[in-house]
Specification:
The complex is a heterodimer of chains A (636) and B (339). Chain A is an alpha/beta fold and 636 residues long. In chain A, 35% of the residues lie in helices and 19% in strands. The C terminus of chain A is likely disordered. An eight-stranded mixed β-sheet of chain B has the order 2-1-3-4-6-5-11-7, sandwiched between helices. Chain B has a three-stranded antiparallel β-sheet with strand order 8-9-10. In chain B, strand 5, helix 7 and strand 6 form a beta-alpha-beta unit. Chain B has a domain of 209 residues: 3-Layer(aba) Sandwich (Rossmann fold). Chains A and B meet through helix 1, strand 9, helix 9, helix 11 and helix 12 of A and strand 1, strand 2, helix 3, helix 5 and helix 12 of B.
């Protein structure tokens, strides 16, 4: 049978099942296949905080969304074109996100009795007509998997567990994905248990063959590779890119990396990853608590290594006092906050960017800390290097704000050449820097570099530079305890000025304003870069003018930010919080920033953002805005 | 850790130029003097030495030592010192803390530093009161203590610092006091020589808020009758004529007896190297508080794998096995493709 092949420019697939169904692995393999094929892609894993919520229930549903295309894309997509639902709960939990007409592939095996009621269905949605508006494919994935792997003699339960690979095989056929890498992966992953290995590979191949032979699926699809600039690419998640950035920062600065950390979702993977890289001299220390994690990192920095601590919002709260100590002692320290939903324990596995003000102000006293934020999973690499550059050059703690979406999401990443990486000079103090009244040479630990206002970093083991630092106020220059009122005022201002001085080293803000005369600017930070970019594209595609810029540095702001803001009539600031960057911009620049704020634990949606941008464009330009795409010639 | 080839130093090399600002008559002065005088004897160098402290009166100590030092935040000195010692095993790292800093706000870090057995020397100045905050009860204050925050008497059952350290399986546990420089220095010398986390409780008089708390046992006239010196390999006995001693009773408890009643042969022979901590623990429970005959000296000194050394060994092994890390190789690990 020859089947029809249809061309598509992009597809969004969501794999959904029970927490124990292996949906994250399935999604990850599909992503790897798509990356290897050369599509651009973006992913969104979404899973419960419970390791194994009760089977078959709505709280136990885990999903993985992958958006892949023949062109440059920015987000995991708003609404799936295809839903693969492994049980009734997965169908019920995800159906609301589907547009009418979407393809729904359902494993029919569990659509009976108790499994239906556990998901809250009184009748089977497969029979009651409630799915009439979708392209429904009913497939007994579990039954066919068990039959396909019969020869390996597994228990029924173990045999059924390979159903995710059957589903992966089917979807791989539908979208013409290369399969070799998945077979290799399964071979390696289950190398020690041959019958499990063989069952998974067989299930995967059976799924492919089923797609090819069954009449239920008449069409397969082709999504051509996306054009990308030349280079070596790999798929990478934010947490992995961040870990690599930290390793690279150690190499580029010549400083051994010391990570003091306490496990916390969604940051733990950085600890796991860095613990593998002892060959790079990376030490990982799993501390007794969050405070000990940052404390040990501060001790390691005082010792002359690169102290790093990783956490999420609740952990950052616990580390506040110690970060203040690093502000006072002016030691390099990199603090990574992979933000999640808050307050308190909040939504541990969901994304949010509501720790900006905590990062900015969450310490006692005037306690300025530079803040940087990555904008995409791959960008976490560069953001980590930038955080290290600032920490080492300016002798200061630096906060890096990632989030759950960046941490677990992935995208193709062009691997940089080593020559592209910045070199970072620790410039340890080697001798006295000051002559005292009697003419003797002395070492003053708080005598500053005039350009950066950084103090010398003199490390133990250096004879003649012995000195004491601590949390009490320092006298300017000599660094001994000082209660002098004028000195305190001077030191408070100097610490603030030092952080502001970082702006001198930043490049001008890149503003994307293709026509050069837009009246509306959309300004964001962090992981909203993708949705904002996609929203801006929709507005432009419909024939309207809009400018976009995105902040890497939240403290200090780039020097030209005020000037950029002043160029536009309206400034829209989309954030996954209730307007934290808006607050800072309003305070600093007296600009009437308009917030677009959602805190749903999920990325912003490009389509909704486009509407919000459109409204502002309508106000600013005094026109009616219709976002139905205009014909090409209407674009100026 | 001890560099015997180092040029000799004198007390002057170890004293900083900062004016010491404890209350006149504070026990901290005698501990500072004892340490400054001891350092030249240890054959170590100021630049290789780091003193780390938390918050409290005792935690001002690093400012007065001409070494590297950090006066950090409340309770966290063991954590900061752990990072230092792990990052730089070549350094000689000391922690100075008090009963509030080390046992109250920082209790967690203390027990974890002890169980990991990081090579740091921890001096816990125990004055059984909060000094810097002006006189509230501490976690070692006796029940019923009347203080500013407990006008009707404290209800808190106190920690026994040595029992706590032994419970955390500290490999070196000792006790000394601020009125006997020789005993103090000898105890600190032993703690410094120990490879691993060494815990020393120092009874220290706060003459402003808790004056005389240890007089019953540490004053010159009472010492003979009420301090029980622990000497490795020797029967445990005390008293001006050595007339009293310690035995293990049939319940496994240490008990004080008249030697004349039981005979010299029945006395407990001190063994600080005993692998299980039960003997040391029994001795730590001998006195209900510093108001009755109390053992001083080294309770426990056993060999146990040191943490920083093992961290270094893992790093070295990884580099030996795989060679030093290659960044470009790391970045392209996993599947890549060319465009």
């Amino acid at each position: 049978m020859t089947k029809q092949v249809k061309q598509l420019d992009r597809v969004i697939i969501r794999f959904a099942g029970d927490s124990g169904d292996g949906m994250q692995l399935t999604g990850d393999r599909f992503t790897q296949e798509s990356a290897a094929f050369g599509n651009d892609l973006s992913t969104l894993p979404n899973f419960p905080a419970e390791i194994r919520a009760p089977q078959g229930t709505l709280p136990g549903v885990s999903s993985f969304q992958v958006h892949f295309a023949d062109h440059d894309i920015l987000t995991p997509g708003d609404a799936p074109d295809v839903l693969v639902a492994m049980n009734p709960a997965a169908l019920r939990a995800n159906l609301g996100d589907l547009p009418k007409g979407a393809t729904v592939i359902v494993d029919t095996h569990d659509f009976s009795g108790r499994n239906l009621s556990k998901a809250g269905y009184t009748t089977s949605p497969l029979d009651d007509g409630s799915l009439d508006e979708y392209a429904l494919h009913q497939v007994d994935l579990t039954g066919m998997t068990v039959a396909a792997v019969k020869e390996f003699g597994l228990s029924r339960k173990d045999a059924a567990r390979a159903k995710n690979m059957f589903a992966l095989g089917l979807l791989s056929w539908m979208y013409g994905r290369p399969t070799e890498a998945t077979v290799d992966f399964l071979t390696r992953r289950f190398a020690k248990v041959s019958e499990i290995r063989d069952a998974n590979i067989t299930a995967f191949q059976s799924g492919w063959n089923f797609g090819e032979t069954t009449e239920a699926f008449a069409v397969s699809y082709e999504i051509k590779p996306a054009p990308m600039s030349p280079g070596t690419y790999r798929n990478i998640t934010g947490n992995l890119a961040l870990s690599y950035g930290l390793v690279a920062g150690g190499v580029q600065s010549g400083l051994p990396v010391f990570l003091g950390s306490y496990p916390i979702t969604p940051a733990s993977d950085i600890l796991h990853e860095l613990s593998k890289h002892k060959a790079f001299g990376v030490t990982t220390f799993q501390a007794e608590d969050e405070i000990a994690g940052v404390g040990a990192a501060i001790g390691a920095s005082f010792a002359g290594t690169l102290g790093v601590t990783t956490t999420s919002g609740p952990g950052l709260a616990l580390k506040s006092e110690a970060i203040g100590l690093a502000v006072m002692t002016e030691l390099p320290l990199v603090v990574i906050d992979v933000q999640r939903g808050g307050p308190s324990t909040g939504l541990p596995t969901k994304t949010e960017q509501a720790d900006l003000l905590q990062a900015m102000f969450g310490r006692n006293g005037e306690s300025p800390v530079p803040i940087v934020a990555p904008q995409s999973p791959g960008d976490c690499f560069d953001a980590a290097l930038e955080a290290i550059r600032i920490a080492v050059t300016y002798r200061t703690p630096v906060l890096l704000l990632s989030d759950g979406m960046l941490a677990n999401g992935s995208e193709p990443w062009r691997v940089p050449e080593l020559s592209e990486l910045p070199s970072i000079d620790p410039a340890f103090a080697t001798g006295p820097n000051h002559a005292v009244d009697d003419g003797d040479d002395d070492f003053w630990p708080y005598l500053r570099n005039e350009e950066t206002l950084a103090r010398p970093w003199a490390i133990p083991g250096t004879a003649g530079l012995e000195h004491r630092i601590g949390g009490l106020e320092k006298g300017d220059g000599h660094g001994n305890i000082s209660y002098d009122p004028a000195n305190h005022d001077f030191m408070v201002r100097t610490r603030a000025a030092k952080v502001q001085r970082i702006a001198e080293s930043l490049p001008p803000l890149e503003v994307d304003d293709p026509t050069g005369d837009a009246k509306v600017l959309v300004l964001g930070w962090g992981s909203t870069y993708g949705p904002i970019g996609a929203g801006v594209r929709r507005v432009r595609k419909a024939g309207y003018r809009v400018a976009q810029t995105h902040l890497r540095h939240l403290n200090p702001f780039p020097k030209d930010l005020g000037e950029v803001l002043a160029r536009y009539d309206k400034v829209l600031v989309p954030e996954m919080n209730l307007g934290q960057l808006s607050l800072l911009l309003r305070a600093e620049y007296l600009v009437d920033a308009v917030g677009y704020n959602h805190v749903r634990g999920l990325p912003l949606k490009a389509a909704e953002l486009a509407e919000a941008i459109g409204e502002l464009v309508a106000q600013a330009e005094g026109v009616d805005v219709d976002l139905t795409p205009a014909p090409q010639e209407a674009l100026s | 850790m001890t560099d015997t080839a180092s040029p000799a130093t004198t007390r002057k090399d170890w004293a900083s130029d900062q004016e010491v600002r404890w209350c006149p008559g504070c026990g901290d002065y005698s501990i500072l003097t004892a340490v400054q005088l001891l350092m030249p004897d240890l054959g170590v160098r100021p630049e290789q030495t780091v003193f780390v402290s938390g918050i409290g009166c005792s935690s001002r100590f690093p400012y007065y030592m001409n070494t590297y030092g950090m006066h950090s935040i409340h309770g966290r000195a063991p954590a900061i010192a752990t990072g230092l010692a792990v990052a730089r095993p070549d350094l000689d790292v000391w922690v100075v803390t008090g009963d509030g800093d080390g046992l109250s706000i920082g209790g967690n870090h203390l027990i974890h530093a002890l169980r990991r057995n990081v090579d740091i020397t921890i001096l816990l100045f125990n004055n059984q009161i909060y000094g810097l905050t002006k006189g509230q009860f501490s976690p070692t204050s006796e029940v019923g203590k009347v203080t500013k925050s407990t006008p009707f008497g404290s209800l808190d059952h106190p920690f026994n610092p040595l029992s706590l350290a032994l419970g955390a399986e500290a490999s070196f546990v000792a006790r000394t006091h601020d009125l006997d420089r020789q005993h103090l220095q000898e105890t600190l010398r032993r703690a410094h020589e120990h490879r691993g986390a060494a815990f020393v409780e120092i009874y220290q008089n706060c003459n402003v808020f808790n004056d005389g708390a240890f007089d019953t046992i540490t004053s010159k006239q009472n010492r003979g009758a009420n301090l029980i010196p622990l000497v490795h390999g020797q029967p445990i006995r005390f008293g001006d004529e050595g007339e009293r001693g310690v035995v293990m009773d049939d319940q496994g408890r240490a008990a004080i007896v008249d030697v004349a009643d039981v005979g010299e042969g029945a006395l407990l022979v001190h063994d600080e190297e005993r692998p299980d901590p039960s003997l040391a623990f029994a001795l730590s429970r001998l006195a209900p508080g510093p108001t009755a005959p109390t053992p001083v000296g080294v309770f426990r000194a056993v060999e146990r794998a040191e943490y920083a050394e093992q961290v270094s060994a893992q790093l070295a092994a990884a580099q030996t096995d795989a060679g030093p890390g290659e960044l470009s190789q790391l970045l392209t690990s996993g599947g890549t493709w060319e465009v």
